[in-house]
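Long-time lurker. I teach an intro course on protein structure, and each term I like to show students one example going from raw sequence to a predicted 3D structure in token notation. This year I'd like something fresh instead of my usual example. Would anyone be willing to generate the tokens for the chain below so I can use it in lecture? Attribution to the forum is fine with me.
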Amino acid sequence: MKLNQSVFKDQAWNYISETPGFLADNAQLVLAFGERFLLEKLNLYEQLRARYPTADIVINSTSGEIYLDKVHDDSVIVTAIEFEKTGIRTVQIDISKHTESFKAGEKIAQELDAPDLSALFLISDGSWVNGSELTEALNQLLKRHIPISGGLAGDAARFERTLVGLNQPPAAGKIVGIGFYGTELKIGHGSMGGWDVFGPEREVTKATYNVLYQIDGKHALDLYKEYLGKYAESLPAAALLFPLSIRATTESEPLVRTILSIDEEAKSMTFAGEMPEKALVRFMTANFDRLIDASAVAANTSMNQLNFAPELAILISCVGRKLVLGQRTDEEVEAAREVFGTDAVLTGFYSYGEISPLQSNARCELHNQTMTVTVFSEN
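-- Reply from a regular --
Happy to contribute to a lecture. Here you go:
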């Protein structure tokens, strides 16, 4: 694997790094993560197409960019990949509403599944897509266990619209799937939140899709405000500090769910993922040191699946973590870098949702408020 990395910031392109022998004409895949306003005015796709004439080019908007071991804003980080022993195929699906997310996942599986498919990486619209339905379709349709990871595009903390594009200027309502083929590419993944849980576990007694109405027969919003105390006055912004832990059954691993909005009249809360009835939930709160430590745990988990140092690491972390950590946000990227050592190329972005199995050979899940890491290396 040979890599080339460059960044657009402060009105100029700057070179970051390049593997000896890398040839732009031979790059098969280009990943470009950038601030939405920049993507809209840069003519980025045309510039990248001229630079990498035969590559599949994937572009998405972010809530912050990760490179050079730091978190950046108002930039575009571009990573070009020349695989030496691995094939790739890509597909883009258009989606216009949340209810089409399962069908979109089915189409991606149908387009990319093959006997030699070794991994799948997703970049999805972060505003219109139900990530839980998208991942559920892939879990059901793929004929055998395939590691699936990726993330939902971001839009800073504006939550207006997100952009994704494959071999075209990025636009709203797109999902891109990238399939990797062959036996020579090794991939590891890890995902960890680091939030503290508090209060008893309670049952979801009324919900529709991602809208939660009642917990233990009580209005969900009233109960949530009761737990938040003085922080309830700062809703909905304060919701990023207090996500929910959810388990479908007592045997399930808990997932983190972010609150997107609240409805004072219906006393309901809308989440960035499914909230099935009879699921078990607990309230969560931020612990800064544990959030940062979780990044190192995710990085170690991904590394342990490779058994050697990665050549490329893609870090996808949640916009909520960035808003909570504030000036300490760089520390979670630095924690991952310490695990990987100095040689791996780091890229990534802050997202509206993360996609990864919780552990090796597990189902792919949508996560919120996690640091999710995918590492790549060719034999």
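Some talking points for your students: The longest strand covers residues 196-208. The helical segments are 36-41, 44-51, 101-112, 131-141, 220-228, 288-306, 319-325, 329-340.
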